[in-house]
Specification:
By secondary structure, this protein is mostly helical. It contains two helices and no strands.
């Protein structure tokens, strides 16, 4: 075996070696690649596919959490909208009550103003009646005095004449 001739075992080893490796010692590739190389390529493809599937899974989970978060936010937004609508209806009802009360207050204020004007007018009439009655009483006293003094004054006038 040391003589340069190769025996059948060496020949078989070399054939097997050349099935997997090139004459320069590199692993064969392409169509002449051994099953191990094809398995290695398939393994790399499977690893890449697994990584892609994992990345898709992570993206799906992220999207799923985002969808759930948005669903929760939508539910909260609906609740907030309902509460806002209730508050708006209540505010409108309170505003209507307020408008009604203001209208009633204004009507009462107008009635009070009218009653005050009527009171003032009636008071002026009463004061005028009292003043006229007092003046009338004084005039009657003066008339009675003049009537009682009339004959005396007539005598005085006649005596002076």
């Amino acid at each position: 075996a040391a003589s340069g001739s190769t025996g059948p075992v060496e020949k078989r080893i070399e054939e097997r070696y050349l099935q997997v490796f090139s004459a320069k010692g590199k692993l064969k590739a392409g169509k002449d690649a051994p099953p191990l190389t094809r398995l290695k390529d398939r393994l790399e493809e499977a690893i890449a596919a697994r990584q892609k599937a994992y990345d898709l899974y992570v993206a799906f989970e992220k999207a799923s959490r985002r969808v759930e978060e948005l669903r929760t936010r939508r539910t909260q937004a609906r609740y907030n909208a309902d509460e806002t609508m209730k508050a708006l209806r209540n505010a409108r009802a309170v505003a209507e009550i307020y408008r009604t009360l203001v209208a009633e207050r204004n009507q009462r204020s107008e009635r009070v103003t009218a009653a005050e004007a009527q009171y003032k007018e009636l008071k002026q009439r009463i004061d005028l009646i009292k003043s006229t009655k007092r003046d009338h009483g004084e005039a009657q006293k003066m008339l009675a005095t003049l009537e009682s003094e009339g004959p005396l004054k007539d005598r005085e006038v006649q005596e002076r004449e």
